[in-house]
């Protein structure tokens, strides 16, 4: 079963307002993101059916008005429930199976965040009188800091992507040469603009305007934003699109980035491509071998260059500047290290003999 089929199945079991929320707020995001939020919301609705509204036959009967009666106490009990709860599923041979699901503090917070987003949507669209989730406290997490690429790692990765002839042989070389211009365009666009991987794969040819040196992306929540291209990004995209437009029988007429079957590239395909180049460049840290590492690197580089954090937030498409502060912490750590390394603990006395 494909992920798109799974998403359709999840949404078909839930109330119409959940379908609207996922489609309106997460249209353009990866299928994994949409599926994750849908699963989290279903967990919440199943809990409500079992403990809050036992009189209804299915979660599809839950209305916004019913969600409006959920209290802070209900959410406290829901948080406790999320630590360990039963899930009914079905085996490949059609047998019913009950398994126990457990969540870490991170998993609990993510599910609460998903539900909070739904409540915010319902409140903004006047379906409920108040957003009770604003009163819910999230568990404090001690997260490991994810680092951007270092300057040397960036140089090494650029060399592999631009000069793969020096690294690959045989079938791998043939594959590299076939997609070289496309992969260079993807990498420079990503590193040069900091857009999300979902925004990158959803780019259409009509979104790009070389006269204004910009392109349009659809951000989370459906808002559109004009992204201005650095010169190198513009040049690499132009070179690639010249090659791309030579394809006569391409079923994806609008898609900018396509695979060898002339279909729009998926998020998973971009992730796989970048991981391959990172391994070749000797970058083995799993966090750095993902597309978001390039977005993180873009943000940190702007902050190092003195760009105001509010401008960085706008360029990154962050509605909440607190999200941008996570990247600022990376830059701050580097600045702290440089300051501390330059401190003379014992100052030399020039008068000593």
Task: Write the topology of this structure.
Layout: H1 3-12, H2 16-25, H3 31-51, H4 64-67, H5 72-82, E1 84-90, E2 96-102, H6 105-124, H7 151-162, H8 170-193, H9 197-201, E3 208-209, E4 214-218, E5 224-228, H10 231-244, H11 267-280, H12 291-304, H13 309-316, H14 321-341
Antiparallel strand pairs: 1-2, 3-4, 4-5
Helix pairs in contact: 1-3, 3-6, 8-10, 8-12, 12-14, 13-14
Q: How would you describe this protein?
A:
It is built from 14 helices and five strands. Strand 3 and strand 4 form a beta hairpin. It has helices spanning 3-12, 16-25, 31-51, 64-67, 72-82, 105-124, 151-162, 170-193, 197-201, 231-244, 267-280, 291-304, 309-316, 321-341, and strands at 84-90, 96-102, 208-209, 214-218, 224-228. The chain starts with a helix and ends in a 12-residue tail after the last helix. The protein is 53% helix and 7% strand.
| Number of alpha- plus pi-helical segments | 14
- Overall mean pLDDT: 85
- Major sheet size, sense and barrel closure: 3 strands, antiparallel
CA-based shape = globular
H and E string: HHHHHEEHHHHEEEHHHHH
Strand order of the largest sheet: 3-4-5
Radius of gyration in whole Å, from Cα? 24 Å
Question: Strand share of the residues?
Answer: 5-15%
Low-confidence stretches: none
Number of strands: 5
Q: Give the helix/strand class.
A: mainly alpha
Query: How widely separated are the two ends?
Result: 81 Å
Helix content: 40-55%
């Amino acid at each position: 079963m494909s992920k798109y089929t799974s998403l359709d199945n999840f949404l078909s079991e839930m109330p119409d307002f959940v379908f609207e929320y996922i489609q309106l707020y997460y249209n353009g995001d990866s299928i994994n993101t949409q599926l994750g939020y849908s699963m989290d919301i279903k967990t919440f609705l199943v809990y409500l059916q079992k403990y809050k509204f036992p009189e209804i036959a299915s979660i599809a009967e839950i209305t916004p008005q019913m969600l409006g009666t959920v209290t802070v106490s209900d959410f406290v009990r829901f948080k406790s429930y999320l630590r360990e709860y039963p899930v009914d599923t079905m085996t490949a041979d059609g047998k019913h199976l009950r398994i126990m699901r457990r969540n870490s503090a991170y998993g609990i917070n993510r599910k609460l965040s998903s539900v909070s987003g739904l409540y915010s949507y319902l409140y903004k669209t006047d379906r409920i009188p108040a957003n009770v989730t604003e009163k819910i406290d999230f568990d404090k997490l001690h997260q490991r800091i994810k680092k951007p690429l270092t300057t040397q790692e960036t140089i090494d990765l650029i060399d592999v992507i631009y000069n793969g002839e020096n690294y690959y042989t045989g079938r791998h070389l043939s594959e590299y040469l076939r997609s070289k211009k496309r992969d260079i365009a993807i990498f420079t666009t990503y590193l040069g603009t900091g857009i999300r991987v979902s925004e990158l794969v959803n780019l259409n040819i009509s979104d790009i305007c070389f006269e204004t040196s910009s392109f349009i992306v659809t951000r989370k929540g459906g808002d559109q934003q004009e992204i201005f291209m650095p010169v190198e990004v513009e040049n690499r995209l132009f070179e690639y699109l010249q090659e791309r437009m030579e394809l006569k029988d391409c079923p994806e007429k609008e898609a900018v980035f396509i695979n060898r079957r002339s279909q729009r590239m998926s998020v998973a395909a971009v992730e796989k491509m970048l991981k391959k180049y990172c391994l070749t460049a000797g970058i083995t840290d799993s966090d750095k071998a993902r597309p978001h590492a390039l977005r993180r690197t873009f943000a940190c580089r702007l902050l190092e260059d003195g760009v105001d954090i509010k401008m960085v937030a706008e360029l990154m498409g962050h509605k909440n500047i607190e999200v941008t502060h996570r990247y600022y912490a990376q830059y701050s750590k580097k600045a702290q290290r440089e300051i501390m390394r330059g401190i003379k603990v014992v100052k030399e006395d020039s008068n000593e003999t």
